[in-house]
Amino acid sequence: MAVRVENKVFYLETKNSLYQMKADEHGVLRHLWYGPKTEQDMDYLLDYPDVGFAGNIYEADTCRTYSLNTLPLEYGTAGVGDYRVPAVAIVHENGSNALDLRCKAYRITEGKYSIPGLPAVYAEEQEADTLEIVLKDTATEIYVILQYGILEEYDIITRSVIIENRGEQAVTLQRVHSLCLDFPYGDWEWIHFHGRHAMERQFERLEVFHGIQESGSVRGMSSHQQNPAILLCEKGCTETSGFCIGAALMYSGGFQAQIEKDQLNQTRVVMGIHPDTFSWKLEGKDCFYAPEVILSCSNEGMGALSRQFHRIIREHVCRGKYKLEERPVLINNREAAYFDFDDKKLLNIAKEAARLGVDMMVMDDGWFGKRDDDCSGLGDWYVNEKKLKGGLVKLVEQVNDLGMKFGIWFEPEMISEDSDLYRAHPDWAIQIPGRKPMRGRSRLLLDMTRKEVRDYLYQAISAVLDSANVEYVKWDMNRSISDWYSAELTPDRQGEMPHRYVLGLYELLERLTRDYPNVLFEGGSGGGGRFDAGMLYYCPQIWCSDNTDAYERTRIQYGTSFFYPVSAVGSHVSAVPNHQTGRVTPFGTRAVTAMAGSFGYELDLNTLSEEEKKEVTAQIKRFKKYGPLIHNGAYYRLSNPMEDKFAVWEFVSPDQSQVLVHGMIFWTEANMLRYPVRLQGLAAGKRYRLEDTEQEYTGAALMEAGILLPRSRGDYAPVELVFTEVSN
Ligand code: DGJ
After folding, report:
1. Out of 532, 604, 650, 725, which one is annotated catalytic?
2. Model's pTM, two decimal places?
3. 3-state class of 173 per DSSP?
């Protein structure tokens, strides 16, 4: 078992880490340690200063050194003298909000807990252990159950929380964070991923200063603007050395991560559903389940930490037929045609794509209802036969006859006011009575909390999937949510709607992915506006960004790579000048960048020169050859494209016999100096040959001294180097 309890100290051990807590003499659950293994009760580290204005619990009597405000706690609460950011805040029946939690019991079981209605890391019985610690409020019947899943081999600990109201009267939950992590010492920095539409997950590293820093979203979605995943690292931590911790929330709605450095230089991290768009009336005898946080730490830098997250997300978050399978190379018609297409145009694109080796044709926005621009049609998920003559069946058959699979776009959560659906059910759109609703990209949202709405969507989508051989669905979502109000909810429950929306979305996704196990679902939200571990539970890949500019993609994909595996990243080669930026990058560079993902094309291949067409076939061949290495190999960031003059990354096969170094040199210079780059993750004693040369290197040389990147001519030159083990 990866969990043991000795003298009321809980030891949660993974291959390389120890997580430790202690139920102290007052039953308060203190956090003691999360870091490398120490084989030690870490209680000795705690100091008990008598800090003025830090209150003492009643049982401490005249002892002024025992304070909830100064002790590292496992789950900080509001209202009882811990003035740091709380993990949980509740309003009781009498209006008070104190919550004083004491340890009552614990349970250790084999296997990994699951969470009703919410995605969670899953594992075989022998792969994980679960620890549940039951805390109870000293004055009421509120119980807080802290859940820990320990995946020893993966160096992963998951956390989640259940609030149980064993009393008779309802209480209101104002905040239920899934994670609370206290560190009594340390000089920390934190990394978060901010951005905007078409510019997601921009890496930013900041000093943790006194006070509170925060990353979050109140948009009802995890958002382009911040991502629900952060790192905390010791100063000086690099890709290959130093201590760091990662926390990824498995949730697709609004979230909050707060980091507070307090008066004693202690640091607290909390993470969970954003309290500004959350409240929950918890009836007597009822439970509330918070989403899960995936935690991991590394004493060998951020690269190792990322690889731990890649492995757990790929193997124990993503599900279904395609989770480990190579994905079809697809062509999407969006940037080739936008709304201006019919069956002929699509077939024309498909024919050339099939000839050049593409596996699947994806028909994007515009195939349904009355949909020639952004202003109408959403909700009417039946084929527009004026555009697709002969209907979907005929088109799919024709595409299949070319030897290609067929995929289709939906934006299920949306409704256009100019749609048959809206005319029939205006009340299904989210809007507050007496107020004009906010429109976003000319659309409203459906109230996903309502069962009849979800049933309608299930039927509408399954009717399309049943009608023809559709093997892929792109599930899009193109606006932030506002005007929270549901006719189904009483006024005292309106604050529940943002979370209920996410629960509704998950329920629908669960039904569809369960009933259509052979369909590959790809998530997306204006590109990467809902790129999170929650969505990856249903969709093993997500369209990474609407920005297909290869240069900017290196930065977006760099940020994405800190938590999410390469196979999860939808990434396509598009036309130049790029539609988002006007930038022109070489064809080869666009392909290399898109290969760091689930690869495809987003242009009309008919428009390419014969030379470029040949190159497409060669690119697809290369991707088929190296796809398994790219998706199953270990991923290494060899540069920081936010600072360096190049972006270079590397894939190493599990047996370290094959190494792929990909990337781009941003700008050329006259008399250019070549950039040295050290490889990582090779076997020092092995010899490697550089493809197409006779040159051999030891793994040690490649890692200790590195290689010189090719001298580039022209801006954005690609880097593509393959090293293969030389067998003696
Ligand atoms: C946003 C997506 O990210 C795009 O790829 C495309 O599908 C459009 N929506 C269609 O409206």
Report:
1. 532
2. 0.98
3. strand
Rounded average pLDDT over 469-488: 98
User: Closest Cα partner for 627 from 325, 330, 306, 404?
Assistant: 325
Nearest to 676 by CA among 717, 712, 710: 710
Say how far apart CA 362 and CA 364 lie, in whole Å. 6
- Burial (Cβ within 10 Å: 0-12, 13-18, ≥19) of residue 526: buried
Q: Which of 221, 224, 334, 531 best tests ligand 1's pocket when mutated (most atoms within 8 Å of CB)?
A: 334
Identify which of 478, 572, 601 to mutate to test ligand 1's pocket (most ligand atoms within 8 A of the CB): 478
- Cβ–ligand 1 distance for 200 under 6 Å, the answer no
Strand segments (E) across 312-419: 330-332, 360-363, 405-410, 414-415
Q: Is the pLDDT at 375 greater than 90, yes or no?
A: yes
If DSSP states are collapsed to H, E and C, what string results for 38-50?
Answer: CCCCHHHHCCCCC
**Ligand 1 atom with the shortest distance to the CA of 474:** 7
> Nearest Cα to 472, choosing from 633, 371, 311, 598?
598
**Active-site residue 100, yes or no?**
no
Q: What is the DSSP string of 282-336?
A: E-TTEEEEPPPEEEEEESBHHHHHHHHHHHHHHHHTS-STTSSSPPPPEEE-HHH
pLDDT computed for residue 474 by the predictor: 98
Phi, psi of 641 (to 5 degrees): -70, -5
Predicted confidence band of residue 43 (pLDDT cuts 50, 70, 90): very high
Cα–Cα distance, 593 to 551 (Å, whole number): 8
Instruction: List all residues 6 or more positions away from 104 whose beta carbon is below 8 Å from its beta carbon.
Output: 27, 134, 135, 136, 143
What is the reported pLDDT for 206? 98
Q: 511-553: per-residue pLDDT in tens?
A: 999 999 999 999 999 999 999 999 999 999 999 999 999 999 9
Q: What is the pLDDT of residues 575-620, one digit of tens each?
A: 999 999 999 999 999 999 999 999 999 999 999 999 999 999 999 9
Using an 8 Å Cβ cutoff, are 135 and 146 in contact?
yes
Grade residue 302 by pLDDT with cuts at 50, 70 and 90: very high
Active site residue 41: no
203 C-alpha to ligand 1 centroid (Å): 24
Any ligand 1 atom below 6 A from CB of 718: no
The residues that bridge with 591 in the sheet, in sequence order, are none
Return the structure tokens found at 452: 């009849």
With a 6 Å cutoff on the Cβ, whether 334 touches ligand 1 is yes
Catalytic residue, candidates 612, 655, 691, 704: 612
Distance 625 CA to ligand 1 centre (A): 29
